[in-house]
């Protein structure tokens, strides 16, 4: 089966339910055994916002008394006229019940690489993360079933494809380096013009997202929708799955930017100088809670939230744990040799936190180019000498924490005069002279302007997944 991207775009613009027919009777599918798995390999093509951007491949094979699940994914997208490349190769070893035993993942984003290895033992998951020559380790505690994320659609096949069946288990995700709960419901047996034959419709909820997948009686995922229909993957022959390389190289559409823009009716003149802003924010789930910070006060209203943002601070400072914002992490490598050496060079003999922050900002502005280049951590940014907003914030936080200045990453949206819209953005808050202060390393702002709206705090991907249900749905109206 080959995807016709332009047709799918129309299908998924709001009428997707018309293209799936629920059948009255579903076949009785026998419970599968890992020793007699119905397939060994399959390929899928991936479409985002109406354009083909990549492929994935998965294998399931016996390996020395266990079973190895090997996955490869490659994506190429265009953002701000720059080609961005993502690649992942992962190997998970599981037992006959798909329980995770050991793993090895290699991730590449633009020019940054990360290697993750680990194993499980008695309710503990031990992992080791290598980036350049720096190694960090961590132990995660868990109880109950734990399968790798690459086995998430093998689980219902192993335990039985049956309409109205619900499964609850946990997955380990190597990208977020975290364990997440999963709920899967088999809701119907359907046919469609979008895939060959008939398949079970499976809804999977994890990490704040709902994904719908159609799995046939042989356990093959025929078709999948996520991110409210903007992300699609479908079973394809290997030849077609890999054709994205040529297509993406010729693509001129900036589908990432188009999807994430939040336009507003009222234009803001000179946004980098704005000292106060009042904004009505809607489109997030009912359970989402807006944050209050030293620069931002939000209150729930009928249509969402009303947030008032100041470039200075509100009188009531917040009690934020300073010690946790001094620690080194997988993302903020503040205890790394290279970071310590650079922090000493930048700040010199200065012991004043305010002066140290100003020196770090000046160094970043002079030495780290502002480009749409992703990084896994602060060491990648230091090596590449170029980064987007998150990279600038990661390196700033690493240098500040090394100097004993509590610093946390905050994520939200900021107004762009170029697009007359709000864009997703990352900046920092540092504890200086007895209060938390918003600083934007990307813009070189010692005091971030009032168009910065904080949505969540977090530096690790596991924390940033809270943004996923918001992208493409937020609306902002300015007073």
Keywords for this entry:
16-stranded mixed sheet, alpha+beta, 10 helices, 479 residues, disordered N terminus, globular, five-stranded antiparallel sheet, 17% helix
Strand content: 35-45%
Please tell me the total number of domains: 2
pLDDT < 50 stretches: 1-18, 244-255
Tell me the number of strands.
27
Residue share in helices?
10-25%
* Major sheet description: 16 strands, mixed
Quick check: average pLDDT?
84
Structural class: alpha+beta
Q: What is the rounded Rg?
A: 24 Å
Distance between the termini: 50 Å
* Number of DSSP helical runs: 10
Shape: globular
Describe the protein in words.
With 479 residues, this protein is an alpha+beta fold. It folds into two domains: 5-253; 261-478, C8orf32 fold (Roll). It contains ten helices and 27 strands. Helix 7 (353-367) packs antiparallel against helix 9. The radius of gyration is 24 Å and the shape is globular. It starts with a helix and ends with a strand.
Which secondary structure elements does this structure contain, and how are they paired or packed?
Elements (H helix, E strand, L loop, with lengths): L4 H7 L8 E3 L18 E8 L2 E13 L2 E14 L2 E13 L5 E10 L2 E10 L2 E8 L2 E8 L4 E3 L6 H5 L6 E8 L4 E15 L5 E9 L2 E7 L5 E6 L4 E6 L1 H4 L2 H7 L4 H6 L1 E2 L12 E7 L13 E6 L2 E7 L26 H11 L5 H15 L1 E2 L7 H7 L1 E2 L1 H14 L4 E10 L4 E12 L2 E5 L13 E5 L3 H4 L10 E4 L1
Helix pairs in contact: 6-9, 7-9, 8-9
